[in-house]
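1st attempt posting a full record on here, be nice pls
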Amino acid sequence: MATMVELGIETYACAHCKMQMFLTAEFVRQMRETHEGFYCPMGHNNFFPGKSEKEKLAEQLDQSRRELERERNMISSLRDEVQREKYSKAAYHAHFTRLKKKIASD
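the predicted structure (as tokens):
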């Protein structure tokens, strides 16, 4: 009884000699993630220098987290400013009331 196994073969050309190589999809995925070198049949070193999908998503996540932190800091800063303005308003109001009473008593 024969068993069918599908490997998912992909064709790539050597970066140096352009010789065709047949690589499994799993091997390509692993090489893209680790950026390790592999050799063509003629012995030339090849690798995938580009960022893997996982690396791209991790960078997007980090960027989103930094943006969220900046927004939270901005909100905190604005809340502090609003609180300072409230205290300032209360202080001016108290000073105005004292002056009004002093004028009224004179």
